[in-house]
């Protein structure tokens, strides 16, 4: 199995736990949890900022200063609704109580405490359609250009059956503003129906990384550098949640020049 692919840990609340140490990089952490209705979870942000994304289900969430009760609307990430999320600054704690079965994603990156804890509602998110034909996908910005943060960039993408996304292949692994920024990235994948799979390739120009992975439901793909397109087989719908962070909170990407001609069609 590729070292860039993390399979879910079934039969426990924490199904994914990616840290900078485990990913062998510097900025991004990612966790996913599955709670039954009535179960609770305690989280501490320590010296990081966090974005808690309710992928599916409803919850009460309390920080040290605020509380948000019975938040969440969608029961599946495929409902074509934006999520609820909570931003948590460093040196804070969150208490989560699941009001229904809950799938929670925890997006983590460095922070110093510039912004307070706050609720992110569906109205705060931004939807956009990208691409055309079989390159069409639907993007929801959760914590991106729509809202401030210190390091975190958080976005989710729905890709229809038979389509491609993160395509043409692009990368963001070089600290070279204004041409490109260096951002590590995780992809948390969901499939509809859940027995499906997608293909994700991660490769660099010199092919020092060149991995093509069969990615199943609730897997995480880590992208330390390189291009990283996703292909969705016929009959299945793809959702993924991206977490990005790096030295600068700017998303400036560079397309693979071999495939950039596709944009001219």
How would you describe what is shown here?
- This protein has 265 residues and is mainly β.
- The protein has a single domain (5-264), classed as Jelly Rolls, CATH 2.60.120.
- The chain contains 1 helix and 25 strands.
- It has a 7-stranded antiparallel sheet with strand order 1-22-19-24-14-13-12, with no helix packed on it. Strands 2-3-10-5-8-11 form a 6-stranded antiparallel sheet. A 4-stranded antiparallel sheet has the order 4-9-6-7, with no helix packed on it.
- The protein is globular and about 50 Å long.
- The N and C termini lie far apart (36 Å).
- The model has no long low-confidence stretch (mean pLDDT 97).
- Its EC number is 5.3.1.30.
- This is 5-deoxy-glucuronate isomerase.
- One of its GO terms (molecular function) is 5-deoxy-D-glucuronate isomerase activity.
- Keywords: Isomerase.
Structure summary:
The protein has 265 residues and is mostly beta strands. The chain has one helix at residues 20-23; strands at residues 5-6, 14-18, 29-35, 40-44, 48-56, 59-62, 67-71, 85-88, 93-98, 102-110, 118-120, 126-130, 137-143, 153-159, 164-165, 170-171, 173-176, 180-182, 184-192, 197-203, 210-216, 220-223, 230-231, 237-245, 254-255.
């Amino acid at each position: 199995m590729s070292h860039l692919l993390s399979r879910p840990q079934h039969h426990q609340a924490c199904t994914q736990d990616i840290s900078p140490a485990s990913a062998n990089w510097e900025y991004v952490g990612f966790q996913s949890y599955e709670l039954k209705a009535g179960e609770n979870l305690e989280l501490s942000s320590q010296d990081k900022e966090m974005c808690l994304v309710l992928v599916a289900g409803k919850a009460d969430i309390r920080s040290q200063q605020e509380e948000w009760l019975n938040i969440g609307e969608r029961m599946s990430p495929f409902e074509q609704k934006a999520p609820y999320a909570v931003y948590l600054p460093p040196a804070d704690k969150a208490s989560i109580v699941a009001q229904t079965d809950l799938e929670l994603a925890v997006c983590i990156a460095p922070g110093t405490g510039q912004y307070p804890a706050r609720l992110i509602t569906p109205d705060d998110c931004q939807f956009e359609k990208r691409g055309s034909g079989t390159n069409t996908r639907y993007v929801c910005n959760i914590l991106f250009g729509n809202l401030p943060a210190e390091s975190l960039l958080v976005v989710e993408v729905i890709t229809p059956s038979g389509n491609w996304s993160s395509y043409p292949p692009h990368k963001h692994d070089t600290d070279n503003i204004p041409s490109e920024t260096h951002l590590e990235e995780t992809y948390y994948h969901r499939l509809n129906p859940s027995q499906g799979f997608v293909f994700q390739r991660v490769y660099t120009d010199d092919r020092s990384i060149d991995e093509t992975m069969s990615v199943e439901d609730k897997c995480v793909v880590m992208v330390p550098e390189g291009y990283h397109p996703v292909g969705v087989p016929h009959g299945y719908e793809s959702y993924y949640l991206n977490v990005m962070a790096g030295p600068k909170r700017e998303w400036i990407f560079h397309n693979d020049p071999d495939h950039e001609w596709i944009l001219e069609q």
